[in-house]
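Quick question: what would this complex look like in 3D?
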Amino acid sequence: MTDKQEISLTVNGREHTLAVEPRRLLVDVLREDLGLPGTHIGCEHGVCGTCTVLLDGASVRSCITLAVQADGHAVRTVEDLARGPDLHPLQDEFWDKQGLQCGYCTPGMLMRAVEILEQNSDPTPEQVRQQIASNLCRCTGYQYIVEAVVAAAPRLRGEHAWDPTIPTEAKA
Amino acid sequence: MTAVQRSAPPVRQQDKTRTWVGKSIRRVEDPKFLRGRGGYIADLVRPGMLHAAVLRSPHAHARIVSIDTAAAAALDGVHAVITGAQAVELTEPLPDFGPDPAKLTWRCLAVDKVRYVGEGVAVVVADNRYVAEDALSLIDVDYDPLPAVVDPEQALQDGAPLVHEPMGANLAYERTFDFGDVDGDFAAADVVVRDRLRWHRSGGQPLETVGAIADYDPSTGQLTAHTNSLSFTSYLFMVATTLKMPVNKLDIHPVPAGGSFGSKLFATKPLVLAAMCSKAVGRPVVYLEDRVDNISNCDHHGSDRVYDVELALMRDGTMRSLTIDTIDDYGAYMQFGVGHHGNALAQVTGPYTIGSVRYRVRAALTNKNQQGAYRGFGSEVNNWMIEQMVDKAARELGMDPVQIRRQNFIQPAQFPYFIPTGNVYDSGNYDAVLDQALELGEYDRWRAEQARAREQGRYIGIGLITAQERSVFSATEFWFWFDEPGAPVTSMPESVTLSVDATGGITATLYSGAFWGNSPETMVAQLVAEEFDCEPQDVSISYHGSKGGLPATGPGGSRTTVMLAGAVEGASEKIKAKARRAASELLEADPEDLEWVAGGFQVKGVPQQRKSLADIAIMLHLFKHSFPEDMESGLEESRVYDHPYTTMPSADRKDLGVFYPFMGHACHIPVVEVDIETGQVSFLAYAAVHDCGTLVNPRSLCGHIVGGTAQGIGTALYEEFVYDDEGQLITSSFLDYSIPTAMEVPELRIGHVETPSPYTPHGIKGGGEGGRMMAPAALNVAVNDALAPLGVRVTELPMTPDRLRAAIRGAGAERR
Amino acid sequence: MKPPPFHYSSPTSVSDAVALLVEHADEEPRVLAGGQSLVPLMNFRLAQPGFLVDLRRVAGLDAIRHDGETLVIGAMVRQATAEKSPEVALGAPLLAEALHYVAHLPIRNSGTVVGSIAHADPAAELPAVALAMDAEMTAVGPQGERRIPAAEFFQGPFTTSLGADEILTDVRFPHRSGGHAFVEFARTHGNFALVGVAALIGVEDGRISSAAIAVSGLGPTPLRMPAAEQALVGAAPEGVAVSAAVDAGSAGLHPAGDLQGSTATRVDIARAYLRRGIERALDRALDRR
């Protein structure tokens, strides 16, 4: 029974039935079997959070989750955030605030941030900082990530639309 | 060697009216990363691609008696197993800029013995990484363990186990430089402050490891590779030599790097392993390190130094001279020699008018992974060392830490200022930086707060440091160590091609693997937009592979923006020259009567007589017969921009010449509180003011300052690659190697002073490393300031709870 | 860093799961709940089970319920679920507080309360909580069900008295009155702690009436601190008693030194955190937080 197991995953709203070796990590199945390279591998022992995806809406480390454990569940990855040409408000704000440099931790950060704002639609910067501490970023020192998540909150509450014509320094 | 002594480049008048340089535009790199379409090395898949995994040594030092690979090779899905001994047949030693590569030989896999935990012993090629790792566990290596040498000072003692027997000793390099009249200055000094300092090794640890895909085509003999490492495009012949192939058959394509911080600089080993495997199996092979590979075998550990330092001063606090005696623990190999100390020598006396310096460096070989590059490349250690000495001097002289620094500053009128080593500081205004930092950091308020807290038994410390931030290295620092260097190269160029298509759209082509988290595309887009009055987002950027590419060096030493700016400026001049001539033909006007205005050429004073760049471009592309015979079709120009300010070292090395001229400066003021019961350090505030010359994108520079500071916080408090007495690496994963989370990094207040460089386009200086060049020094000063009432002075980084508690216990500070 | 191959089954009942453990006894079978400790170990290939019994499809293991004066947490209850549960907040506030310190939310979203206890990491939070609360583990094996008191459960680092053919189906936390506190010292946020302190202190009529204190990170298993408890019980809830308890509790400690801290440092930190934990629990008992 290292034989492949048949599992069904709903990934970004699309249902997949596939046969996987039970040892395959969810991150590898997403990247290799389903062609979704946005979920990255950083440490493969659950510390860095680069591989964070949402499983039934809750953030998990896909590098320490066996794909079979996700059988029958819904997975959401960074590829599900933008709608065609339109970025998700979090993506807009990460861009606007320069909440990324090398971009490698960014998908995991974004998915964690989705969960943070779903659990608290109006967090303080301190709350965001504490919550986002689940994910490592080696480039930014986190400051602009925190700013981006805080800035996205009112947009996700539908309070005002983002105006891409206003440069960052003018928004301060 | 025939070297032409070059003098300083002409001083530029820096134009202050800029449209795009200086604006915090959104980075043009970002949309793909935000969508998860970064195209990192792990995202690239070649048809038929196989996966390689490396068997790591579990021993710090051992002879390899035998390796049995039969079971691994027989495993279903395994295509090849190559041992170190077999690799000797397939490859030459790896590219190496260090001393004596013939005796201190570095290869992609260990051959007769292993020299550190994690060193590669064999590589497996299999259908996928899972099977490759299965096969690794089936390889049977018979080791004969040898005593390990771990401590750098013990390594230099007689009788220590030898890391490389042909060297005859573990002292791989030693030299003492004397710059100026050290003995005279010490004799004239009133006070000598001495200390012994210890900086342990940490590393960049980008969240993406190093990897390469190699695809060897036996029919053409061409090797096509993609890798997130390698720069020094001009030096790729060294890789070709390692692979025993002609350099014109090697084509390396850069891939975005998921972070580097230096640690992906010229990381040749993964590429060589992948290439060797691809040649062996005739299929594309990817080798991508896992985290344990990266921590234990990345060849990019940071500096690991013991210092004995003496600072000579007058009683009024005037600094006269400095003697530095350092042992640097290089680990088992020395790919970049002691270049890290060249970095130190670029700014060895800090922002101060210290008149002379003696610098003794000894490089020790030990059973550890070797040093490479980590944000600062050794100059951050020097900053820390000087600032600890200045801080100690202030305490011993009973002086205010602000005043002792201020009164020794090089003054604005003294620039360009040559320091004793011969390097130049191009420009600066250190008082302005200090003044802004004192205000931004609310220095006086925190001093009052500190006094109140002390009365309540709380230990608050304010760390004030003022230090240098060198940028844009030249090649000489790699070899001025040697009286008769093997390769006294002098080129470290960067190139850009600008192509204007028939519709006037501009494409900029870059020639090195320039992206590793910095913003080369944004920088180029802003610089091109500045030149041609277009929108930055309308500039298209592409990266050229190495084959047929122009000379390029790539990022490192905070050089990218300055060097790209020079190349963009040069290519733009050429484009405009041709466009001017074309416009003069089209407008039937003298070229001298034309002026560039708002994206086109027009007759001076006659705006109606005008051709936009697009008007000119379509003519040049499609209407050859509208122009004189000698004008070629199209509108494309390149510029190879060489280092703008390098001078040769003197033969006696009393003067190292100019090799790191664009000198930034910063003042950091962290405020910390130490829980003396546990040794935990927490932040109350943090202010940082930097002067990196003219800013191109202020927000992206701020991002580098915060990010670098976060890494400096790691170096100061959390991060260390710890090898135990037997040479076992006991921090081989992120479980033990602790990287700061958002909760360990404070919110920074950031300020800028802009003192333009007189020698670079727009007056830009590099700024990618500044945060990490300052934070360790500032935090050590802060912690010592907090613990001063207990009589505790910490001289070793990282300042872990264990080290702080030991120091506090040692001082006899009572617990509750 | 990929897991080694293993055989796998996801049974739908506890009895089937036990039967699989018995059937595959010679393949070093392991039980998989959330996998947040086991899968990393497998990625490092430090754990190489030949057979994995995944509890995810076993019905009835994901319940949090009260059984009289006992809070019962099923084997598949995620830490994040327990953390948010009003039942846990009411019935075992010490557990609720400790859960905040378990790694980070993405780990707690998958990791289970019972799995963490079964993993028996001596530095982990939940085993110390189980010990302080005198929790009982419900183990089901081929011979049926038995209850193992926490005091008998933790045998050594990552070692418990659970049989190789047994499965922990739930952990039972008796309701405890008085003040609670969980405090811990970790070098970075969410990292493994050097020292954790779980304290439950009752105060009646101006005297400390009960005390249960357990620590993590200071020995091969979580440790109860009977000497500290004795120093508190019967004393006035004041600083003198706290100091006596800290002295008594730390007197016998001799934690092994390691990378994170020498023996002396760990004792220093243990003393500081014993004091902080006891003070917080006392404050809550006296409702003066």
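Answer marked as accepted. The radius of gyration of chain B is 27 Å.
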